[in-house]
Write a structure and sequence with these properties.
- By secondary structure, this protein is an all-alpha fold.
- The chain has one domain.
- The chain contains 5 helices and no strands.
- Helix 4 packs antiparallel against helix 5.
- The radius of gyration is 24 Å and the shape is elongated.
- 11% of the residues are buried.
Amino acid sequence: MSTEATKSPEIDPIMERLEDQIGWYDRKSMTNQRCFKSIKMVEITAAAIIPFLSAFSFPEMMWVTGGLGVLITVLEGILHLNQYQQNWIAYRSTCESLKHEKYVYLGKASPYVNAADPHALLAERIESLVSQEHAKWASVQQQEAKAKTA
């Protein structure tokens, strides 16, 4: 048996980084989507129940409808505070951009077809996409911090 046949393939750190980032953004996007949709479903259900319950005249009904109103307010605050919908969309966008970059690279399409070093160009473009996402996140965090102190 030749050493060529037993040699394990080299690990490509750039492709590993790309796959890692695609996985991370995909998971974070799905998590934020689930959180947003779950909270919204509870919120919508609570809002729909309030008018229905107001037709009944049980002594505790005022407390129940008031509690549902408080629940809606708290859930809306959680959505605003954690930015689940915005994160979901931003993470999904970055994930899809990374996937696009991967398939353009693997297909040896433009801009990789004429690049002197397509692999280095891929690394630069991956890091650019990730850096853009980080810059957006940092900007949002700074804006929220300013809003809290104002």
